[in-house]
Amino acid sequence: MAQTYEFYCARAKEAAAAAKAADLDRVRERELRAEKTWRGLAEHARAVAEERAKIVRDKAEQTD
Fold first, then answer.
1. Mean pLDDT score of the chain, rounded to an integer?
2. Range of 29's domain?
3. Which of 4, 18, 34, 36 is 20 to 30 A from 26, alpha carbon to alpha carbon?
């Protein structure tokens, strides 16, 4: 499973669409919770990717 920002955002969009299409309140609420979780994971993945890129840049600067 690719744990990337794009992957998590796609899952969040799917959950949002499922929530919008849900007829039952409990299903809608479950999907909205899932969307919130996926968005949190997406943000975390983005932050991790940025931190990794920063580390690579810092190491490259040290070797120059």
1. 94
2. 5-63
3. 4
Q: How many residues does the chain have?
A: 64
Total domains in the fold of the chain: 1
- Integer-rounded Cα Rg, in Å, for the chain is 17
Instruction: Report the distance separating Cα 36 and Cα 61, nearest Å.
Output: 38
DSSP state for residue 22 in the 8-state scheme: -
- Taking a C-beta distance cutoff of 8 angstroms, is the pair 41, 8 a contact? yes
Q: Do 45 and 3 contact (CB within 8 A), yes or no?
A: yes
Residue 35 makes CB contacts below 8 A (sequence gap 6+) with 12, 15, 16, 19
Residue 38 burial (C-beta neighbours within 10 Å; 0-12, 13-18, 19+)? buried
Cα separation of 58 and 47, whole Å?
16
Q: Give the span between the Cα atoms of 20 and 46, in whole angstroms.
A: 26
